[in-house]
Design brief:
The structure holds 2 protein chains of 2 kinds. Chain A contains 9 helices and 10 strands. Chain A has helices at 42-49, 72-78, 95-103, 110-124, 139-152, 169-184, 196-202, 220-224, 227-234; strands at residues 4-13, 16-26, 31-35, 57-62, 65-66, 80-82, 157-161, 188-192, 205-210, 213-218. In chain A, the strands form 2 sheets. In chain A, strands 6-7-8-3-9-10 form a 6-stranded mixed beta sheet, sandwiched between helices. Chain A has a 4-stranded antiparallel beta sheet with strand order 2-1-4-5, with helices on one face. In chain A, helix 4 (110-124) packs across helix 5. The longest helix of chain A is centred in the last third of the chain and has 16 residues, at 169-184. Chain B has a two-stranded antiparallel sheet with strand order 1-2. In chain B, helix 2 (30-55) crosses helix 13 (257-273), helix 3 (63-79) packs antiparallel against helix 4 and helix 8 packs across helix 10. The longest helix of chain B has 27 residues, at 199-225. The chains are: A alpha/beta, B mainly alpha. The A-B interface holds A 50, 52, 71-74, 76-77, 81-82, 84, 88-93, 97, 100-102, 104-105, 107-110, 113, 136, 149-150, 153 and B 1, 175-177, 180-181, 183-184, 187-188, 190-199, 253, 329.
Chain lengths: 238, 330
């Protein structure tokens, strides 16, 4: 039984096939990079995994359980957390309250949730922002808040959707450090990212998709230099 | 959720409690007791509306449904079952909550303005049913019962108890998991879902609590006024819109806002209905709905967060401190 597995996953939007017969496996403890040119279907894969979109055909299973047709909140409760490429902070709540809301998945009282949330904020380096309204945060802190909120649901699989886009090089370096720490704490990670430096330094394995189909899979260097990956990004040599 | 200092809030609560408990001992005028009874009833309805609309983000234009169902539950206890309408105080809440649950089950498939529109439609359906189903509801003839007490004092204390129970329950809820989930759903339903929150389930919870208290207020109204008819208790503008005004004027998404809003709105309503207590010509009384409209425009333009939400702004205005407030990025 694979930790996480998609089997011939397909998603059609009308006539457009956004994800086409995609099968891949993830082992527990890995950091897997999911890359591909713009519009190749990376975010759609995430939206299929966490139940935002219904699956056209194929299946997704997590720890032996089929996820097809489950509502988003149940998938979260099974232990799959995610962040959004276009961040979705709960704007009129403080940073602490944002994370507490997630922490209530495993806490009963307000003070219990606060304690858990403070632990997550400390872990993510957001402690000094805990009383800020989420709408007042910089983009770097918003991305961190996305990760903190996902972590507070105590996932065993974390889907990170472009958590580095728009960050300064220093913030990116901090972000890489944070993701390493998350991984070291035993969380399996799938990361969608355009910044190759981040992908290359973090991932054990990379899956490259183009037009919703897998075109290459393997160790970072191998995939980055794979002819069809270069072709997908840059086009054919004339 | 609130940024009250605990000690400050406790002091304010204690002082208010003393004032409200003492009120009918000092004020012997039946008229002014009546005004406070109505205002306290509106505290219950406004706070309930605010739980659903202000905290959970599901704007209802149909709270008359629950008020009417509560009132009719009490009334029908007398006309159909031959028991006291006070049984309605026991049954009105649960029956309204059940109606709320069913309406939510149907209408929460819709989001945002579409949900609001659906509640208007369902509200009108209830009103028309109560008008047309004469065998059951007595139709436009309404239900008349005999008041239990001649004095206003027992009604006052019952209304006070209801208002306190409602506001304190909501405050407790907002400091629990439910409260955080409600606000998360208001802020971003998709984010809430991916944080493990079933938006459908917790919107229903919010609606059930909200309709429970509104139903209690309706049952109280039946016992207090001793007369109801569909055009009043299922009224879109006397009840549903008034509930919204109470929330907006006081402060949407604040614990104490609707309580303050209820007193302001009942006061404004009475002042205009009585043509400024007889000081102004009769035609002024007919303008009170117009004044509601102007008041809402004023509040939305200058105090979008209501009296409680924008309290610091108001205090600055009256303390004479006219230094320009720091510009906030929006």
């Amino acid at each position: 039984m694979a930790f996480f597995e998609t089997d011939h996953l397909t998603k059609n939007f009308g006539g457009l096939t956004a994800v086409n017969n995609l099968s891949f496996r993830i082992k527990e403890g890995e950091i897997v990079g999911l890359i591909g040119p713009n519009g190749s279907g990376k975010t759609t894969v995430f939206n299929l995994i966490n139940g935002f979109y219904p699956i056209t055909s194929g299946s997704i299973s997590f720890r032996g359980q089929r996820l097809n047709g489950l509502p988003t909140w149940k998938i979260c409760k099974l232990g799959i957390g995610r962040t959004f490429q276009v961040v979705k902070p709960l704007r009129r709540m403080t940073v602490l309250e944002n994370v507490m809301t997630s922490a209530f998945n495993h806490a009963r009282t307000e003070s219990e949730a606060r304690d858990k949330a403070l632990g997550v904020l400390e872990f993510c380096g957001l402690m000094k922002r805990s009383d800020y309204q989420a709408r007042g945060l910089s983009i770097g802190d918003r991305k961190r808040l996305e990760i903190a909120r996902a972590l507070a649901t105590e996932p065993s699989l974390l889907l990170l959707d472009e958590t580095m886009a728009g960050l300064t090089p220093q913030e990116q370096a901090d972000g890489v450090e944070l993701i390493r720490k998350v991984s070291a704490s035993g969380v399996t990670i799938v990361i969608v990212e355009h910044i190759m430096r981040v992908i290359m330094s973090l991932c054990n394995r990379i899956l490259c998709i183009s037009y919703g189909q897998a075109i290459a899979e393997g160790p970072p260097e191998e995939v980055a230099n794979h002819p069809s990956v270069i072709e997908a990004y840059l086009g054919k040599e004339i | 959720m609130t940024s009250f200092k605990w000690s400050g809030e406790k002091w304010a609560t204690a002082i208010l409690a003393v004032l409200f408990i003492g009120y009918p001992l000092f004020v012997t005028s039946d008229y002014y007791r009546h005004i406070f009874i109505l205002a306290l009833m509106w505290v219950v309805i406004g706070s309930s509306w605010n739980l659903l609309a202000g905290f959970t983000g599901q704007v209802s234009f149909g709270h008359a449904i629950f008020f009417g169902v509560g009132a009719y539950t009490a009334g029908l206890c007398t006309t159909k079952l031959g028991i006291s309408a006070w049984w309605g105080m026991l049954l009105g809440g649960p029956v309204a909550a059940l109606v709320g649950f069913i309406i939510g089950w149907i209408c929460f498939r819709l989001r945002g303005p579409y949900f609001a529109l659906a509640t208007i439609a369902v509200g009108e359906i209830f009103r028309l049913f109560a008008v047309a189903w004469r065998d059951f509801t007595e139709g436009m003839q309404g239900i008349l019962i005999i008041q239990t007490f001649r004095s206003k004092v027992p009604y006052y204390y019952l209304a006070l108890l209801l208002a306190a129970a409602c506001v304190l329950t909501i405050r407790q809820v907002m400091h629990s998991k439910w409260g955080y989930y409600f606000v998360a759903i208001r802020e971003d339903q998709d984010a809430a879902e991916s944080m493990g929150i079933s938006a459908f389930r917790f919107k229903s919870v919010s609606l059930v609590v909200s309709s429970f208290f509104t139903g209690l207020a309706g049952a109280f109204y039946m016992n207090y006024m001793a007369f109801i008819d569909p055009q009043v208790v299922f009224s879109l503008h006397f009840i549903s819109v008034m509930a919204i005004l109470v929330g907006i004027i006081g402060g949407v998404g604040t614990i104490w806002g609707p309580a303050v809003g209820a007193f302001i709105m009942v006061w404004v309503q009475e002042t205009f209905r009585s043509s400024f207590f007889g000081l102004l010509p009769q035609w002024v009384s007919e303008s009170h709905v117009l004044v509601f409209g102007l008041l809402v425009i004023f509040v939305i333009m200058f105090m979008a967060n209501g009296v409680v939400g924008d309290w610091p702004k108001i205090r600055r205005l009256f303390s004479g401190n006219r230094t320009a407030p720091a510009k906030t990025a929006s």
